[in-house]
Amino acid sequence: MRRVVVADDQPVVRQGLATIFGVPADFEVVGTAADGLELLDVISATRPDIAVVDVRMPRLDGIAATRQIARDYPQTRVIVLTTYDLDEYVYEALHAGASGFMLKDTPAERLVEGVRLVADGSMLLGPTVTRRLVADFARRETAHVPVQFDALTRREIQVVRALASGLSNAEIAAELTISEETVKSHVSEVLRKTGCRDRVQVVIAAYEAGLNQVAPPA
Predict the structure, then answer these.
(1) Whole-angstrom distance, CA of residue 208 vs CA of residue 2
(2) Ranges for the HTH luxR-type domain (predicted)?
(3) How many of the other CB atoms lie within 10 Å of CB of 193?
(4) Helix crossing, 88-96 with 127-140: angle to 10°?
(5) Range of the domain at 155
């Protein structure tokens, strides 16, 4: 069961999202919030798997809330809501610890699938958006803690480069001719060895290191 919290200051949007995520049998909406401070209270009380968070909210905005969630409730993954696919706030949200973002006008079935992916450890960034968004982000920002890729195996480097291209587990499995379970295992090892919180941080670090531009070691 994937436990979800929805935060949006617009009642119609908030209720609509709660309704969408309340339909699938494998989802449970455990709370809603109208602003960032209320969101933190709800997360403290319910400890959800996923928080779907609007960027622009009163009292405490989505970015500041995401930063606190990543720090205090690392088991809760955050998906930020935005109106535009290159909203300036998305860069800040990723830096704050969000595991991805989605547009408010995304069809319901795709919203549900996106939350499933993030709850299961993936990141919610399409290939085109990944290349545009993270490359630009990496040019703007520097990592607080440099990520070292030296300890990774050749296959793990290949997985990192595939992640940096925005590929899903299924697409990585097809490209490398391995199973999805093996991909998940490699990703887990990458996270462990690099100390990254999630795939988004791995991708950002890969761009910063220029790993997306070089061939994997022989």
Answers:
(1) 33
(2) 145-210
(3) 16
(4) 80
(5) 137-213
State the sign of the Cα–Cα–Cα–Cα dihedral 214, 90, 12, 73: positive
Give the pLDDT confidence of 100-150 residue by residue, as tens digits. 888 888 889 888 988 888 887 777 765 555 556 655 655 655 444 457 788
Closest CA to 196 of 208, 188, 184: 188
The CATH number assigned to the domain holding 89 equals: 3.40.50.2300
Domain count, the chain: 2
- Provide the CA 97 distance to its chain's centre, in angstroms: 8
Quick one: 144 and 177 in the same domain? Answer: yes
Query: Is 87 in the same domain as 189?
Result: no
Same domain, yes or no: 7 and 115: yes
**DSSP H helical ranges for 169-213:** 169-176, 180-194, 199-209
